[in-house]
């Protein structure tokens, strides 16, 4: 039975100030340790540290740390699994040089010791994956995998072993997935399914041989049940059998993560599970294994569920942080200095709002971070700054802490009583609305199995326009986010860069990553009009005139206006801004504004296109601007490319006097989006720090 879906297996009071100062010092002066695993003992062994003089750098970094109020890592650490790189290189060399006896001996030693890397990677699994497909970090092809198969065939013919057979199973499983491709089973051409199942049959045959060989020699190898589970995912093995394989793996090593991850993937709704299956499995399996591993199993299932986005938040009737916390701390005891585990616990503590635990983990990290947990420095920095932040709200009225994901857009709903926060670079599976007065979650609605890619900056009454990826195309829809009932407006081939509508909803406009602008006249016809290559190098932002008769758009040093009635280019503006990132049109139709790289906001008369003036800010880059509903004020959000990031600002300006009224402080990182509530009394801002803040827009 082919799977029904899924993708390939890829797996401030004084006390805080003192803690932060201590952290700054240790994170700058920490000793670089290069751990590697001794196969004789099976335990991590540390080499002597290498110390470099950092006197001037230490002082400057410490001062920056005090200014920016957050710990600073010395450098990005991408090599915390370097302790296994040498081992895998040796494994590959032995295989290619046909030194099979030595290779089998190395695998046997690793198996006996249940060895792990400093980051907790089971070395036996890493060896099998490397032997089966040594180029996992690059684009694989059927040819390259078949080439590896020939090398493994030579090993099996010359000196068969459990390791040789399991490595072949990995190779054939990898080939099966390459034939299958990604996406849901219903989208896979039959021509792909035939070679996929042929490869899976060869994988099963290799595992049968491995099992027989192991039984004859009384060898317990966790790779056999693990690959039974991985192959079972694609062949549609029944749940009882999958559980049996998991039981066999747990008897060998109850702390192994890969079999638990395989079961988690199997139970995902897009594969064979139903809603609630992952939670039930986490609770039941953890209870069964409690005497050996405590709540470790619960924590690993929760970890996998969050990473796959089948679960997005802790709740009373879902995964609960206290139990997951117990499990991850028990897991940490196995490898106490694992940067991946320490960082991961800090990440989930951030998601749960547990600052104390996040602080403890970050202090133990001593400035290190790994891409295995944080994909980039900004992600690490976001959690660090949150963990060591105080409860002070700065100049804002309210702070809604939304977790460890950055927020790039905020759109108001229901006359400003609610807002939707969104990150367009994270393929969201839910629409989440928050209360503007309290910051509390109002509701969340799932849009799975589709992926939400964009949210309009202009609501239409209680409705909102959104962008979604449906069958590989960007689709624009309109609907009620609370009921999640949407109707299709139209589609586009490019990725949405900007999406807006007139207040009455009669005109919708979008720009895409290819520099195209498309608009729909809702009442006239569903067929849109599109300007191909409207602006060079893509289109960053579009704004509609109040009655929808004109479109104002900008990108780089280009600002242009088109007529939605005549379909003609109306005007090209001369701008001093080298890279325009945000444009807006006043609600009375009289003023145009644009800003981007640099510190200037340019203003024009929307009727005769004469230059009204320039507002100068103290900013490196202006990410977002919006004119107030009464047309008298303008708000801007700022961004900095410095490392560590300077806190972004929300700047309120007077349009007539062309000057700054107030600079609002409080965000910990860059500001991506700013918007007024419909009554003009409040400003909302979305930030890279993972929060939305609400500000008083009427203050002088």
TrEMBL record:
Keyword line: Repeat, WD repeat
Annotated WD repeat ranges: 664-700
Matches recorded under PROSITE patterns: WD_REPEATS_1, WD_REPEATS_2, WD_REPEATS_REGION
InterPro entries reported in the protein's UniProt record: Quinoprotein_ADH-like_sf, WD40/YVTN_repeat-like_dom_sf, WD40_repeat_CS, WD40_rpt, WD_LIS1/nudF_dynein_reg
Entry-linked PANTHER family: WD REPEAT-CONTAINING PROTEIN POP1
Protein's UniProt name: WD-repeat protein-putative transcriptional regulator
UniProt organism field: Rhodopirellula baltica (strain DSM 10527 / NCIMB 13988 / SH1)
